[in-house]
């Protein structure tokens, strides 16, 4: 398995852009269904006022990253593309730990 994070955060995107991809509870359910049907099997959606991220464990990194990116574009349109970040492997793990511990916080 390989680890990746795809998302939008306060570091890359202003509030109006982040608002376009803020997942409500019903949107998380829809996204989960869409991503599962597209072939992702191990992922988690994190959505706060500062970030909207999809964490995944995958055996087909490039395909699954592309699926998630396309879902973000479906949500917000092509204007979102410059703000999407992708982190892979050890860099993704470091990011996950920083988010979990609050080290990657706005405050």
What can you tell me about this protein's structure?
It is a single chain. The chain has 107 residues and is α+β, with helices and mostly antiparallel strands. Helices cover 46% and strands 24% of the residues. The protein contains 4 helices and 4 strands. The chain has a 4-stranded antiparallel sheet with strand order 2-3-1-4, with helices on both faces. A hairpin with a 3-residue loop joins β2 and β3. The longest helix is centred in the middle third of the chain and has 16 residues. The chain starts with a strand and ends in a 6-residue tail after the last helix.
Unreliable stretches, pLDDT < 50, 5 or more residues?
Answer: none
Order of strands, main sheet, comes to 2-3-1-4
**Helix coverage percent of residues?**
40-55%
Computed structural class: alpha+beta
| Overall strand count | 4
């Amino acid at each position: 398995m390989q680890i990746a994070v795809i998302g939008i955060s306060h570091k890359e995107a202003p509030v109006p852009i982040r608002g376009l991809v803020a997942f409500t509870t019903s949107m998380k359910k829809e996204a989960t269904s869409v991503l599962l049907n597209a072939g992702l099997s191990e992922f988690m959606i994190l959505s706060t006022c500062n970030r909207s991220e999809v964490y995944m464990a995958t055996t087909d990194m490039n395909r699954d990253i592309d699926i998630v990116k396309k879902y973000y574009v479906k949500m917000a349109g092509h204007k979102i593309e410059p703000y999407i970040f992708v982190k892979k492997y050890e860099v993704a793990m470091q990011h996950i730990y920083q988010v979990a511990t609050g080290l990657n916080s706005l405050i």
